[in-house]
Amino acid sequence: MAVERTLSIIKPDAVAKNVIGEIYTRFEKAGLKVVAAKMKHLSKAEAEGFYAEHKERGFFADLVAFMTSGPVMVQVLEGENAVLANRDLMGATNPKEAAAGTIRADFAESIDANAVHGSDAVASAQREIGYFFAETEISAR
Ligand code: RTP
Ligand code: MG
């Protein structure tokens, strides 16, 4: 097993529901450490750049509109197999398909307002962490 870092975003719906702390508790109980964090209200350009891999998809405009609809909480999580561990905590993209006890099953409303983002691979995690954080903003723990 390898210690990895992954990028997590608590999306505008979950911030508005005031469940940042409940989601952080799930990270901590799973052994994932928050090693950097910031709250941000993304600009349209920031959201478009972050989700550039999806720019040809039919849902892209809705995704960008949703991600800029309110503040988000962005964090770097560190731990054993952090990328997959966080994806397991999140559950399926569509909350209707998310396993019981996952963040999306418990806090998400729809495939658009689905509470959290998590990097899907080590390579995308590196890109996404660099998109939001300078190396000096990440605390080794
Ligand atoms: P995320 O990137 O946000 O962690 O979610 P994910 O990997 O589970 O899903 P992804 O395929 O990367 O899609 C990014 C976000 O776009 C929205 N989406 N809408 N209407 C649709 O068919 C659709 N498909 C995806 C979701 O909000 C998803 O989280
Ligand atoms: Mg994704």
UniProtKB/TrEMBL annotation:
Residues 3-140 form the Nucleoside diphosphate kinase-like domain. One of its GO terms (molecular function) is metal ion binding. Keywords: ATP-binding, Cytoplasm, Kinase, Magnesium, Metal-binding, Nucleotide metabolism, Nucleotide-binding, Phosphoprotein, Transferase. Gene3D superfamilies: Nucleoside diphosphate kinase-like domain. The keyword ATP-binding applies. Pfam families: NDK. Its cofactor is Mg(2+). The keyword Magnesium applies. GO terms for biological process: CTP biosynthetic process; GTP biosynthetic process; UTP biosynthetic process. Major role in the synthesis of nucleoside triphosphates other than ATP. The ATP gamma phosphate is transferred to the NDP beta phosphate via a ping-pong mechanism, using a phosphorylated active-site intermediate. This is Nucleoside diphosphate kinase.
